[in-house]
Amino acid sequence: MDASPARGGRSWRDTGFGQNMGMIYNRLVPCNLCGSESFSLLYPDELGDRAATVDYDFSPQTRKTYRIVKCEACGLIFTNPMPALQSSYEQTEDETYLRSRPQRLRTADRLVRRLLQYKNGGDLLDVGCSTGILLDAASRHFSVEGVELSPWAFEHASARHKVYRRPLRHLGLEKKYDVVTLMGVIEHFEDPTAEIRAIHDVLTPGGLFVVYTGDVGAWLPRILGKTWWWYQGMHLFYFSRSTCERLLNKCGFDVVTTENHCTYFELHSLGISLRRYRIGLLLHPLLNLPGVRNAIVPLKLSGEMLMFATKRGGVQSDRASDLVARAVMV
Ligand SMILES: [Zn+2]
């Protein structure tokens, strides 16, 4: 399908998508990575003008998405027309997220140990820090700050850390950071290029940028198709290793290494996540047994992408090659 609105002599800017369609302001956008206006349809719209559901229970409603397309020029997969979901974040409150703190803290501790292999201290900014769990773990080794737009999560995080409640690119920060982390956030941005450039601006030369998101090109997501857990209404971009690396290159970064992100799960919470799959229905009762349900196990799943990059240019080239050498050693 050619979704390019250029057909018939009309540009994508005047196709009528720029009008308010209800709760969600839809507009057709060009590819954020390459600027192309030719797309093929991957999945049709299931939400219309309804707001996407935000929760961590992976309910059937959470998994409904807006129309998802693939750029015919570069392969980037994203939601188009692009909904404006800002107000959904402002209403977000999630007790399930709070209950999962023990497993999230273990995941954060492990990530911090990985960060320390590249940078043994300095200033760290976690963009989209949620309730501040990564800041908690990182604060033992780094001087930490966060950015968080959800008032509910901001309240939790700012009780313990310095947190900004505005998008990074509107903050006008003079301060530079040695490390910026973006964990499970890039897929929510309406304009990832602008946000990643803002991150580039606040990093020191040679600074480390760490991105965690899904990898739509990995073998497990390819098998699961639309039932892959990253397909959710709140997610606007579905990167692969290749499209994510291209975006980072475009924004002034060199990718140092990419690996499968290790996530810790309490077994009963893993059971909830797996319920949508046939194997999960069989496993759910077992994972809920007393003595089993609270056990925490690490999983490195296909399609969970953790990318380490450094800010390119000038004096940092030596430091970048040093980081590559260290990455190869670990
Ligand atoms: Zn493209």
Produce the secondary structure layout.
Elements: E1 39-43, E2 68-71, E3 77-79, H1 86-90, H2 95-99, H3 101-116, E4 123-127, H4 133-138, E5 143-147, H5 151-158, E6 162-164, E7 177-183, H6 192-202, E8 203-214, H7 219-224, E9 237-238, H8 241-250, E10 253-266, H9 267-274, H10 278-287, E11 296-311, H11 316-329
Helix pairs in contact: 9-10
The protein binds zinc ion.
Residues 31, 33-34, 36, 71, 73-74, 76 line the site of zinc ion.
Major sheet: 7 strands, mixed
Give the rounded overall mean pLDDT.
Answer: 84
What percentage of residues falls in helices of 4 or more residues? Answer: 25-40%
Q: How many beta-strand runs?
A: 11
Beta-strand proportion: 15-25%
- Which fold name corresponds to the CATH topology? Rossmann fold
In one word, what is the shape? Answer: globular
Give a verbal description of the structure:
The protein has helices at 86-90, 95-99, 101-116, 133-138, 151-158, 192-202, 219-224, 241-250, 267-274, 278-287, 316-329, and strands at residues 39-43, 68-71, 77-79, 123-127, 143-147, 162-164, 177-183, 203-214, 237-238, 253-266, 296-311. It is α/β, with parallel strands linked by helices and 330 residues long. It has one domain: Vaccinia Virus protein VP39 (Rossmann fold), CATH 3.40.50.150. Strands 6-5-4-7-8-11-10 form a seven-stranded mixed β-sheet. Strands 1-2-3-9 form a four-stranded antiparallel β-sheet, with no helix packed on it.
